[in-house]
Specification:
The complex is a heterodimer of chains A (508) and B (217). Chain A is of the alpha+beta class and 508 residues long. Chain A contains 12 helices and 22 strands. Classes of the chains: A alpha+beta (508), B mainly alpha (217).
Chain lengths: 508, 217
């Protein structure tokens, strides 16, 4: 049995459908639920606001790619205490289309802390490992092989080895990577197993119906039950609305993303919010990056986009990674102006860029609906203790750079030298008066805005992702993580969604 | 009499303000999709100040086509984001009233300043102790820099131009048409789907992506 796929060009009237399981959002978590429910024989509808992208639609120009594949043209930022760019994809496959395919299991100490602090009883290592394994098997997740690492990833390994820091090749949902370094603009080689070419087609094969270019605007309810959703067909890229859409369902699953799901609940009459936690507890992994300059060419555009990592400092609150992205995006952090800037850009072929993502568990924000749009208002501030952790992470990165043979490091931090030529100079990175406003951060791992909690007064969903207030409404995106997963969140969100899918299927 | 004088002063101020905001901008040398002539002048001046001719990378901001790229980038945004970008350009153009460039005539609008003043003016934003000013600078430079790297010539000069790669057909290619097209536009058939060939890592010597090859006149 094969399902139906609908794209923008084929809508010619209002849409009214019904199903057993309705999934809103086709990102990694939503796609897993859609596939598992369809495979179990349920009648599934999967709704996605963005269009499907084919390799013909990918553009290699970083800014134009962002304008097409990201909400708010890739220019979304947090406000309030801390100004930080943050992106959310608008495409079939969600973030998996434009991320670097990193798949890491959350460490034991994080899961233990979740269970203890959030009164969770079934989210231990032993509980989640079978679900992690199922996702890893389905997507063929394996460590990045050396032959596609490229010099910039291997230099990171060498630096860590010299310093005695553990490091390892990053496990990714990739088959046959050639190291084009183009993960962020869409994989032209079809090597990345983003869910638009893996889980969603599998769901369609099992009969799921996929409605793309549909923006869900409200969840319909009656008493403590969700009835379905209403929304509109929207034109790709412009968001121009046309036909109305209504889908009735026995079970409604929200997987619209940590920044969109709270807005949808708030716009649905403050749904599922008896706890007052919808949209609260917004957390990020703010990322800081340093550029190191080496004496020899590194050919940084060749090699896996993010091929090596170090989990050595996870307990201290940060994870280290290698990084590549469209040069225009990376260059935003570089110092200099005019001829000086050109001089710095000209060193790209001799450079490597490595980043640190920090757990920042003390730093919180909020998602609120804005009038007249489904885009969120994000407020966020960084706790001074977390700023110290980011400073420490930059200091460790500088050590690895110099150990790997870099001749200088460009930190891109306000009130600090543009370029540092020795470890002694770099030590200033962990100076105690470092301020959040000195840093240029990006935050693309987002979570906890509909957090799971064993106590219905303190969380939005239970351990299975079911809303405490509503019998048949589930949330499965990264919003349900009670706090930072310590590592990249995609695999954990997919594992939790895989677990939820069992109960969802049973309930439908 | 006093009222008449005040009115005259007010009218004069309004006239000067209107001239500063609206008048005296040259006609852009290209067809614009989103930018106005005023915004084009701001972007052009900022592109040249940020990426002057010569130096470590040959193309200037103008030769790299930054203004045209920014025009396309603004056109690709949804209305709310486009408005924010327009406000950014207006702010950069006219904030010289509050943060004047050094030297004579430093209060003129940004695009009318001398080249050296334009550089000094933007450096002032970059190094400001005020976070909002630095954020304005970072936002402007991000837009310009992405435009600079949108030029294939710049990427070729740095050896960063994308390489040609094979794009195998997978099962998903039988499901999704290109964006905006109906499913009838799907050009692949089931027989096009074959096992992926063994992956061969890209090398420095590989041919460039066709869009990034050097064009000969």
């Amino acid at each position: 049995m094969s399902g139906v796929v609908r794209v923008f060009a084929e809508y010619d009237r209002d849409v009214h459908e019904s199903c057993d399981v309705l999934v809103v959002g086709s990102g990694p978590a939503g796609a897993v639920v859609a596939h598992e429910a369809a495979a179990a024989g349920k009648d599934v509808v999967l709704i996605e606001e963005g269009p499907p992208f084919t390799p013909d639609d990918f553009v290699l120009d970083g800014s134009l790619s962002m304008a097409r594949t990201m909400r708010e043209g890739g220019l979304r930022t947090t406000r309030g205490g801390f100004f930080m760019p943050t992106m959310q994809a608008i495409a079939l496959g969600g973030g998996s289309l434009v991320n670097s395919a990193i798949c890491v299991r959350s460490p034991d100490f994080t899961l233990d802390a979740w269970c203890e602090q959030y009164r969770l009883r079934r989210t231990t290592r032993a509980d989640l490992d079978p679900h992690y394994q199922a996702i890893e098997d389905f997507l063929g997740i394996t460590p990045t092989p050396d032959d596609v690492q490229g010099p910039r990833n291997l230099l990171f390994r060498d630096g860590c080895t010299k310093l005695g820091f553990s490091s390892e090749p990053i496990a990714r949902n990739v088959r046959g990577c050639v190291g084009s370094g183009e993960c962020f603009t869409g994989c032209r080689t079809r090597a990345k197993q983003s869910v638009d070419i893996s889980y969603v087609p599998a769901a369609v094969k099992n009969g799921a119906r996929v409605l793309t270019s549909v923006q869900v605007q409200q969840v319909l309810t009656s008493g403590r039950r969700a009835l379905g959703v209403v929304g509109q067909v929207v034109r790709p890229y412009t968001g121009e609305a046309s036909f109305k859409v209504r889908v009735d369902a026995k079970v409604v699953v929200l997987a619209a993303g940590c920044m969109a799901t709270p807005v949808l609940l708030q716009k649905s009459g403050d749904l599922a919010n008896a706890s007052g936690q919808v949209g609260e507890n917004l957390q990020f992994h703010p990322g800081v990056a340093l550029m190191g300059v080496f004496p020899d060419r590194t050919h940084p555009q060749f090699g896996a986009t993010q091929g090596y990592q170090s989990l050595h400092f996870l307990r201290q609150g940060f994870k280290l990674e290698t990084l590549w992205a469209p040069p225009g995006v990376l260059a935003v952090r570089l110092p200099g102006f005019g001829f000086d800037l050109k001089q710095n850009l000209a060193r790209f072929p001799y450079s490597a860029i490595w980043d640190a993502i920090s757990s920042c568990n003390r730093s919180l924000g909020r998602v609120r609906a804005r009038r007249g749009t489904m885009d969120p208002a994000l407020t966020y501030s960084v706790h001074p203790d977390d700023v110290k952790i980011m400073g420490e992470a930059m200091w460790v990165l500088a050590q690895i750079f110099f150990a790997a043979g870099a001749t200088s490091v460009l930190p891109g931090v306000h009130r600090m030298p543009d370029e540092m030529f020795s470890l002694a100079e770099a030590e200033v990175l962990r100076k105690p008066d470092l301020r959040a406003s000195d840093l240029t951060c990006g935050g693309n791992h987002v979570f906890s805005t509909t957090r799971m909690h064993g106590d219905a007064q303190q969380g939005v969903v239970d351990e299975m992702g079911r809303c405490h207030d509503t019998e048949n409404l589930y949330v499965v995106d990264t919003g349900i993580l009670p706090r930072s997963p310590s590592v990249n969140p995609m695999l954990t969100a997919m594992a939790l969604a895989h677990r939820s899918a069992g109960e969802i299927t049973h309930r439908a | 009499m006093v009222v008449a004088m005040l009115l005259l002063v007010l009218i004069l101020l309004l006239a000067v303000g209107a001239y500063r905001l609206l008048a005296g901008y040259p006609r852009p040398p290209l067809v614009l999709h989103a930018l106005t002539a005023r915004e084009y002048a701001t972007v052009r001046a900022a592109a040249l100040a940020s990426y002057p001719p010569g130096g470590a990378i040959a193309p200037s901001g103008l030769e790299a086509g930054i203004p045209a790229h920014v025009d396309r980038f603004v056109a690709a945004q949804q209305p709310a984001t486009r408005l924010l970008m327009r406000l950014l350009f207006v702010l950069v153009e006219h904030a010289s009233l509050v943060f004047p460039a050094p030297g004579r005539g430093g209060f003129r609008r940004f695009s009318a300043l001398d080249e050296a003043q334009q550089v000094a003016y933007l450096r002032g934003w970059q190094r400001s102790a005020l976070l909002p000013r630095r954020l304005v600078f970072v936002s402007l430079r991000a837009i310009l820099t992405m435009g600079y790297f949108g030029d294939p010539g710049v990427l070729r000069a740095l050896g960063l131009a994308p390489r040609r790669v094979a794009t195998p057909v997978c099962e998903a290619d039988l499901l999704w048409p290109p964006v905006g097209r109906p499913r009838a536009a799907i050009r692949h058939r089931a027989e096009d789907v074959r096992p992926f060939p063994p992956a061969v890592p890209l090398g420095v010597e590989g041919p460039l992506h066709p869009d990034y090859e050097e064009r000969t006149a």
